[in-house]
Design brief:
Keywords: Antioxidant, Cytoplasm, Redox-active center. It comes from Rousettus aegyptiacus. This is Peroxiredoxin-like 2A. It is found in: Cytoplasm. The chain has nine helices and seven strands, in the order H-H-H-E-E-E-H-H-E-H-E-H-E-E-H-H. The chain has 236 residues and is an alpha/beta fold. The protein folds into two domains: 31 residues; 177 residues, Glutaredoxin, CATH 3.40.30.10. The strands form two sheets. A five-stranded mixed sheet has the order 5-4-3-6-7, covered by helices on one side. A two-stranded antiparallel sheet has the order 1-2. The protein is globular. It starts with 5 loop residues before the first helix and ends with a helix.
Protein backbone atom coordinates (compact mmCIF):
# COMPACT_ATOMS: atom_id res chain seq x y z
CA UNK A 1 0.00 0.00 0.00
CA UNK A 2 1.34 3.40 -1.03
CA UNK A 3 1.97 5.70 1.95
CA UNK A 4 0.82 9.31 1.52
CA UNK A 5 1.81 12.25 3.68
CA UNK A 6 -0.96 14.33 5.34
CA UNK A 7 -0.07 17.24 3.04
CA UNK A 8 -0.54 15.12 -0.08
CA UNK A 9 -3.82 13.60 1.12
CA UNK A 10 -5.14 17.11 1.85
CA UNK A 11 -4.31 18.25 -1.67
CA UNK A 12 -5.99 15.18 -3.19
CA UNK A 13 -9.22 15.87 -1.27
CA UNK A 14 -10.71 19.08 -2.78
CA UNK A 15 -13.68 19.04 -0.41
CA UNK A 16 -11.40 19.25 2.64
CA UNK A 17 -9.44 22.09 1.04
CA UNK A 18 -12.66 23.99 0.25
CA UNK A 19 -14.02 23.51 3.77
CA UNK A 20 -10.74 24.76 5.20
CA UNK A 21 -10.83 27.90 3.08
CA UNK A 22 -14.47 28.52 4.01
CA UNK A 23 -13.57 28.20 7.71
CA UNK A 24 -10.73 30.71 7.36
CA UNK A 25 -12.97 33.11 5.42
CA UNK A 26 -15.81 32.81 7.93
CA UNK A 27 -13.40 33.41 10.79
CA UNK A 28 -12.01 36.53 9.12
CA UNK A 29 -15.51 37.87 8.42
CA UNK A 30 -16.54 37.17 12.00
CA UNK A 31 -13.50 39.00 13.36
CA UNK A 32 -14.17 41.97 11.05
CA UNK A 33 -17.83 42.08 12.10
CA UNK A 34 -16.88 41.98 15.78
CA UNK A 35 -14.33 44.78 15.27
CA UNK A 36 -16.98 46.88 13.51
CA UNK A 37 -19.48 46.34 16.33
CA UNK A 38 -16.91 47.21 19.02
CA UNK A 39 -15.81 50.32 17.09
CA UNK A 40 -19.40 51.57 17.26
CA UNK A 41 -19.61 51.25 21.04
CA UNK A 42 -17.99 53.58 23.56
CA UNK A 43 -15.75 50.84 25.00
CA UNK A 44 -12.57 52.08 23.34
CA UNK A 45 -13.32 55.81 23.62
CA UNK A 46 -11.08 57.67 26.05
CA UNK A 47 -13.18 59.18 28.82
CA UNK A 48 -12.94 62.94 29.37
CA UNK A 49 -11.72 64.34 32.66
CA UNK A 50 -14.06 67.10 33.78
CA UNK A 51 -12.43 70.53 33.89
CA UNK A 52 -12.51 72.71 36.98
CA UNK A 53 -12.96 76.46 37.01
CA UNK A 54 -9.48 76.81 38.52
CA UNK A 55 -8.02 74.83 35.61
CA UNK A 56 -9.75 76.96 32.97
CA UNK A 57 -8.94 80.27 34.68
CA UNK A 58 -5.17 79.80 34.34
CA UNK A 59 -5.12 78.90 30.64
CA UNK A 60 -2.98 81.24 28.55
CA UNK A 61 -4.68 82.55 25.41
CA UNK A 62 -3.42 84.79 22.63
CA UNK A 63 -5.25 87.31 20.50
CA UNK A 64 -4.90 86.88 16.74
CA UNK A 65 -3.87 90.45 16.07
CA UNK A 66 -0.68 91.45 14.26
CA UNK A 67 0.88 92.07 17.68
CA UNK A 68 -0.77 89.35 19.81
CA UNK A 69 -1.55 89.86 23.47
CA UNK A 70 -1.31 86.95 25.91
CA UNK A 71 -3.86 86.86 28.73
CA UNK A 72 -5.50 84.47 31.19
CA UNK A 73 -8.69 82.82 29.98
CA UNK A 74 -10.67 84.02 33.01
CA UNK A 75 -10.80 87.45 31.37
CA UNK A 76 -13.33 86.01 28.92
CA UNK A 77 -16.02 85.30 31.52
CA UNK A 78 -15.02 87.25 34.63
CA UNK A 79 -17.71 89.92 34.29
CA UNK A 80 -20.56 88.48 32.19
CA UNK A 81 -19.79 84.79 31.81
CA UNK A 82 -19.19 83.33 28.35
CA UNK A 83 -19.98 80.61 25.83
CA UNK A 84 -16.72 79.16 24.51
CA UNK A 85 -16.23 76.71 21.65
CA UNK A 86 -12.99 74.70 21.62
CA UNK A 87 -12.70 74.13 17.88
CA UNK A 88 -11.29 70.77 16.83
CA UNK A 89 -10.20 72.09 13.42
CA UNK A 90 -11.35 75.36 11.77
CA UNK A 91 -11.37 73.81 8.29
CA UNK A 92 -13.50 70.83 9.36
CA UNK A 93 -17.00 71.08 7.90
CA UNK A 94 -18.44 69.40 11.01
CA UNK A 95 -16.85 72.07 13.23
CA UNK A 96 -18.14 74.77 10.91
CA UNK A 97 -21.63 73.31 11.18
CA UNK A 98 -21.46 73.51 14.98
CA UNK A 99 -20.12 77.07 14.71
CA UNK A 100 -23.18 78.02 12.64
CA UNK A 101 -25.48 76.50 15.28
CA UNK A 102 -23.79 78.43 18.09
CA UNK A 103 -23.79 81.62 16.06
CA UNK A 104 -27.56 81.30 15.61
CA UNK A 105 -27.78 81.90 19.38
CA UNK A 106 -25.87 85.19 19.15
CA UNK A 107 -28.94 87.50 19.18
CA UNK A 108 -30.30 85.81 22.32
CA UNK A 109 -26.88 85.73 23.96
CA UNK A 110 -26.51 89.45 23.23
CA UNK A 111 -29.83 90.07 24.98
CA UNK A 112 -28.47 88.23 28.01
CA UNK A 113 -25.19 90.13 27.79
CA UNK A 114 -23.25 86.86 27.39
CA UNK A 115 -20.36 86.91 24.87
CA UNK A 116 -19.61 84.11 22.41
CA UNK A 117 -15.98 83.07 21.90
CA UNK A 118 -13.95 80.31 20.26
CA UNK A 119 -10.44 78.97 20.81
CA UNK A 120 -8.29 77.20 18.22
CA UNK A 121 -5.13 75.18 18.83
CA UNK A 122 -3.19 76.34 15.79
CA UNK A 123 -3.15 79.12 13.25
CA UNK A 124 -2.41 77.82 9.75
CA UNK A 125 -2.44 80.15 6.76
CA UNK A 126 -6.01 81.51 6.35
CA UNK A 127 -7.80 78.75 8.28
CA UNK A 128 -9.05 80.99 11.11
CA UNK A 129 -10.03 83.74 8.68
CA UNK A 130 -11.95 81.21 6.58
CA UNK A 131 -13.70 79.97 9.73
CA UNK A 132 -14.96 83.41 10.74
CA UNK A 133 -17.91 83.54 8.30
CA UNK A 134 -19.33 80.55 10.18
CA UNK A 135 -18.64 81.86 13.69
CA UNK A 136 -20.01 85.18 14.96
CA UNK A 137 -17.71 85.62 17.94
CA UNK A 138 -14.12 86.53 18.72
CA UNK A 139 -11.49 83.79 18.28
CA UNK A 140 -8.33 83.22 20.33
CA UNK A 141 -5.32 80.92 20.12
CA UNK A 142 -4.76 78.20 22.74
CA UNK A 143 -1.24 77.11 21.80
CA UNK A 144 -0.88 74.67 24.70
CA UNK A 145 -4.26 73.05 23.88
CA UNK A 146 -5.43 73.40 27.48
CA UNK A 147 -9.09 73.86 26.56
CA UNK A 148 -8.90 70.37 25.03
CA UNK A 149 -7.92 68.89 28.41
CA UNK A 150 -7.37 68.30 31.29
CA UNK A 151 -7.23 64.83 29.67
CA UNK A 152 -6.59 65.42 26.00
CA UNK A 153 -8.54 62.91 23.92
CA UNK A 154 -8.02 61.82 20.33
CA UNK A 155 -10.09 59.97 17.79
CA UNK A 156 -7.98 58.43 15.07
CA UNK A 157 -9.04 56.39 12.06
CA UNK A 158 -11.54 54.40 14.15
CA UNK A 159 -13.81 57.40 13.69
CA UNK A 160 -14.29 56.56 10.03
CA UNK A 161 -15.97 53.22 10.81
CA UNK A 162 -18.39 54.67 13.37
CA UNK A 163 -21.95 54.92 12.09
CA UNK A 164 -22.55 58.02 14.20
CA UNK A 165 -19.70 59.82 12.46
CA UNK A 166 -21.06 58.97 9.02
CA UNK A 167 -24.49 60.16 10.10
CA UNK A 168 -22.86 63.43 11.18
CA UNK A 169 -21.09 63.69 7.82
CA UNK A 170 -24.35 63.36 5.89
CA UNK A 171 -26.15 65.79 8.23
CA UNK A 172 -23.54 68.51 7.70
CA UNK A 173 -23.37 67.94 3.95
CA UNK A 174 -27.15 68.17 3.76
CA UNK A 175 -27.09 71.75 5.08
CA UNK A 176 -24.41 72.67 2.55
CA UNK A 177 -21.41 73.23 4.84
CA UNK A 178 -18.04 72.62 3.18
CA UNK A 179 -14.50 72.33 4.51
CA UNK A 180 -10.95 71.15 3.89
CA UNK A 181 -8.29 68.84 5.36
CA UNK A 182 -5.86 71.48 6.63
CA UNK A 183 -4.50 71.21 10.17
CA UNK A 184 -4.62 68.80 13.12
CA UNK A 185 -8.08 67.28 13.52
CA UNK A 186 -7.71 64.26 15.80
CA UNK A 187 -7.76 66.05 19.18
CA UNK A 188 -11.43 66.34 20.13
CA UNK A 189 -13.00 69.67 21.02
CA UNK A 190 -15.97 70.82 23.05
CA UNK A 191 -18.15 73.68 24.25
CA UNK A 192 -18.23 75.41 27.65
CA UNK A 193 -20.69 77.76 29.26
CA UNK A 194 -18.91 79.48 32.14
CA UNK A 195 -20.61 81.71 34.69
CA UNK A 196 -19.26 85.08 35.76
CA UNK A 197 -16.66 85.42 38.49
CA UNK A 198 -16.58 82.26 40.58
CA UNK A 199 -20.02 81.02 39.49
CA UNK A 200 -18.39 78.03 37.84
CA UNK A 201 -18.82 75.86 34.76
CA UNK A 202 -22.52 75.67 33.91
CA UNK A 203 -22.20 73.39 30.89
CA UNK A 204 -19.31 71.26 29.62
CA UNK A 205 -19.85 69.39 26.37
CA UNK A 206 -17.01 67.12 25.26
CA UNK A 207 -17.01 65.88 21.67
CA UNK A 208 -16.96 62.07 21.85
CA UNK A 209 -16.61 61.52 18.09
CA UNK A 210 -16.24 63.63 14.96
CA UNK A 211 -19.31 65.86 14.61
CA UNK A 212 -20.74 65.19 18.09
CA UNK A 213 -22.02 68.74 18.47
CA UNK A 214 -23.56 70.42 21.49
CA UNK A 215 -27.32 70.93 21.78
CA UNK A 216 -27.94 74.69 21.24
CA UNK A 217 -30.98 74.54 23.55
CA UNK A 218 -28.76 73.30 26.39
CA UNK A 219 -26.29 76.11 25.72
CA UNK A 220 -29.02 78.74 25.93
CA UNK A 221 -30.48 77.21 29.09
CA UNK A 222 -27.05 77.32 30.74
CA UNK A 223 -26.42 80.89 29.54
CA UNK A 224 -29.66 82.03 31.18
CA UNK A 225 -28.27 80.88 34.54
CA UNK A 226 -25.32 83.27 34.34
CA UNK A 227 -25.40 86.03 36.95
CA UNK A 228 -23.42 89.04 35.68
CA UNK A 229 -20.99 90.61 38.14
CA UNK A 230 -22.08 93.98 39.49
CA UNK A 231 -19.39 96.62 39.93
CA UNK A 232 -19.12 98.65 43.13
CA UNK A 233 -20.34 101.81 41.36
CA UNK A 234 -23.44 99.99 40.06
CA UNK A 235 -24.32 98.80 43.57
CA UNK A 236 -24.56 102.37 44.87
Amino acid sequence: MLWMSPEMSFLQDPSSFTMGMWSIGAGALGAAALALVLANTDIFLSKPLQATLEYLEEIDLKTLEKEPRTFKAKELWEKNGAVIMAVRRPGCFLCREEAVDLSSLKPKLDELGVPLYAVVKEQIRTEVKDFQPYFKGEIFLDEKKKFYGPRRRKMMFMGFVRLGVWNNFFRARKVGVTGNLEGEGFILGGVFVVGSGKQGILLEHREKEFGDKVNPVSVLEAARKIKPQTSASEKK
